[in-house]
Design goal:
The complex is a heterodimer of chains A (320) and B (346). Chain A has 320 residues and is an all-alpha fold. Chain A contains ten helices and no strands. The two termini of chain A are 62 Å apart. In chain B, a hairpin with a 2-residue loop joins strand 9 and strand 10. Chain B has 346 residues and is α/β, with parallel strands linked by helices. The chains are: A mainly alpha (320), B alpha/beta (346).
């Protein structure tokens, strides 16, 4: 370990500081064994600091692992050590998992390239009003009322957008419910497998936290695998993608409309230009490869036929 | 108790070590850019030993990840294995498509860029056919190319290549069956992050949890941390996918399985795998969760070649590129297979 905190990188400094804190806690351990539990506060405390975004990848993994550690300590090293039979330990671990799954369930359904703001309806309503495409005081609602008058087209667009948002949020909720179900099944499986050790059946070892953790992962993947392959789950995943893409398409339409108001180039215009360039390039390529083209003629006159390497088959001339 | 103390100690060391390993770069073998068009580049690797007298190998990698996985580091490089076997190696780098490439379709990639890469190798080497090595999705492209231009391919090697896209083990395939592709590509290119999210969802607990805990368990070795960072960089260094090509790939291959039923058309021509009559070596990973063996194995009955060799390697999809077993087995077997099919020179 290093005690060099002179690096400009705030992450390095943070790690060094946390290591020093950890070391201090270790030094106190012999005098106050109860402080062992403080070890597991290390990660959450670290996570609160401004760590680089990339490192947050580790967050959920380590948080779960530390949760297991905390539970294990309570079961094995706490005041009620007598009660720490394999079955109760398994139940305690299962409780940790259930809590973790409930938290996870609430975060699901956000696709990486499509993140909605916390209150997407309000967020878009504000944006539309700021851009002048929606009068202030109007609300984004997916009612069945007929759109009438000068702003008829706009009203319909707002209704559609509000409806799509609601659909997307419904699918997110359905997915979160699936995950909570997966979590419940996985924790049951995990508890059963851990309990099996007390009866001598083949299963997990309670001697190592890492071994226990690996069993948990194995159980969770098994349960997830069986659910993920089901037609219902596949349908849900497709529904999630479709509903989020539909919202995204409406957002895009709204932004394009805004851009047109200010005579800014829109994606639709750029697409048209790309299409034209593509067609022109294809025509040029076809002309260049045509036997009657001047380029082909001059090349066929000036370029000597390549002499094939010994033992290598000569190439036929039918190129694309 | 001792384990937790040890874990805490290792975690600190891992975090510090990762900071030092963060700037690790992939790639180890010297190469030259010999051709390019738009964002596509063709590289030729510099030889490491005496030529084996085998026609050059052109590697056609997938669009969905970066090809440097084939040459990650000195002790994890299939390309280095090929070079050590005396092979002349070319590699296609498709680049990072952006909005200007959204209209690129499969015809552009296969009959366009790939064809012109092959032409460059043929012209510069003055030969009639290359040894085409297609990897993953690039293997599917190579099958299409060989079926359409059989005269330019001397031998075909496919590696972890999906052929039958609708087998029961193929989770990815099940998920995309209900996808509305009009909506998918309406927003333009599909981001690499989105694809990565889907890949992680195939085994979420192992890929988003366990691998980081395992890292701490094994993470005091700085070399291992550097290996990890190279892999991590590769996994998440995913180019966006050109909208038109991705749409066709999902619809024609995953949803309609056209390669298997012979209904695939590219550039107004039918892709008939029975037209592949040259020797075929089909390498697949027996523990592959992305391209399950059941997706690769059916190639045997679909090609017209009388010289078909399957090769199962006991690794996963990623392991095919970086595992010690693959490093040991794959380059030497490919070189031997190609060598056996090289006509003796008079």
């Amino acid at each position: 370990m290093t005690d060099d905190t002179s690096h400009a990188d705030p992450w390095t400094a943070t790690v060094a500081q946390m290591q020093q804190e950890l070391l201090q806690r270790w030094l106190k351990l012999s005098a106050a064994p109860a402080e062992v539990s403080a070890l597991f506060e290390w990660w959450p405390k670290l996570a609160e600091t401004a760590v680089p975004l990339s490192f947050q990848q580790f967050g959920p993994a380590w948080e779960l692992y530390f949760s297991l550690g905390r539970t294990m300590l309570q079961e094995l090293g706490g005041g009620d050590a007598q009660a720490a039979d394999p079955a109760s330990r398994a139940r305690a671990f299962a409780t940790v998992m259930e809590t973790w799954f409930e938290q996870l369930g609430s975060q699901l359904g956000q696709l990486p390239n499509f993140r909605l703001p916390p209150d997407p309806q309000q967020w878009w309503q504000t944006l539309m009003q700021a851009s002048g495409s929606m009068p202030s005081g109007a609300a984004l609602k997916s009612g069945d009322f007929a759109a009438l008058g000068l702003t008829r087209e706009r009203q319909e667009a707002w209704q559609k957008f509000a409806r799509l948002l609601a659909q997307y949020q419904q699918v997110q909720t359905k997915l979160a419910q699936q995950w909570i179900k997966i979590g419940a099944e996985a924790t049951k499986k995990f508890a059963a497998r851990v309990s099996a050790t007390s009866t001598g059946a083949p299963g997990a070892s309670m001697e190592s936290l890492k071994g226990l953790y690996d069993v948990w992962i194995e159980c969770a993947e098994e349960v997830y695998g069986s659910v993920a392959h089901s037609p219902e789950y596949a349908h849900l995943i497709a529904e999630l993608a479709n509903s989020s893409n539909a919202v995204r398409a409406e957002q895009q339409r709204e932004l394009e409309s805004w851009a047109r108001q200010f005579d800014l180039p829109t994606r639709a215009e750029i697409n048209s230009l790309h299409q034209q360039v593509k067609e022109l390039r294809a025509q040029m390529r076809a002309q260049a490869s045509s036997p009657s083209s001047p380029k082909s003629k001059s090349m066929s006159k000036s370029k000597p036929k390549p002499k094939p390497k010994r033992g290598v088959r000569r190439r036929p001339r039918n190129r694309k | 108790m001792a384990e937790m103390l040890e874990f805490g100690r290792r975690l600190g060391a891992t975090l510090t070590g990762l900071g030092s390993a963060a700037h690790t770069r992939p790639g180890c073998s010297a190469k030259q850019r010999v051709w390019g068009e738009d964002k596509v580049a063709l590289y030729r690797y510099e030889p490491l030993t005496r030529p084996a007298g085998i026609a050059p190998v052109l590697i056609c990698y997938a669009l969905v990840n970066r090809p440097y996985m084939m040459d990650l580091q000195a002790d994890r490089s299939l390309i280095r294995g090929f070079l050590n076997a005396g092979l002349d190696v070319y590699l296609i780098d498709w680049g990072y498509p952006d909005g200007a490439d959204r209209l690129n379709d499969l015809d552009d990639y296969i009959n366009g860029y790939l064809h012109r890469c092959v032409q460059h190798v043929l012209d510069s080497q003055q030969i009639a056919g290359v040894n085409l090595l297609g990897v993953c999705q690039g293997g599917t492209f190579s099958l299409c190319y060989t079926a359409l231009h059989p005269q330019h391919v001397k031998n075909l090697i496919t590696m972890v290549t999906p052929v039958d896209f609708k087998t029961p083990e193929n989770l990815l395939s099940k998920w995309v069956q209900g996808l509305n592709l009009d909506l998918l590509v309406q927003g333009g290119n599909v981001s690499g992050d989105c694809l990565n999210g889907i890949y992680l969802s195939l085994m979420p607990f192992r890929l988003t949890q366990q691998k980081y805990i395992d890292l701490v368990q094994a993470g005091e070795d700085q070399r291992q941390l550097e290996n990890f960072m190279r892999m991590e960089r590769w996994i998440f260094d995913s180019p966006d996918q050109a909208a038109a090509a991705l749409r066709q790939f999902i619809q024609w291959f995953y949803q309609e399985n056209r390669l298997v039923d012979g209904s695939l058309m590219l550039g107004k021509r039918q892709v008939d795998l029975r037209r592949i009559v040259q020797p075929v070596l089909n390498i697949y990973a027996s523990k592959d969760h992305l391209v399950p063996p059941s997706a690769s194995v059916p190639l045997a009955r679909l090609v017209g070649s009388a010289d078909y060799t399957p090769l199962a390697v006991d690794v996963g999809h990623i392991g095919m590129y970086v595992s010690a077993r693959a490093q040991q087995e794959v380059p030497s077997k490919i070189a031997a297979w190609l060598g056996a099919r090289e006509k003796p020179r008079p």
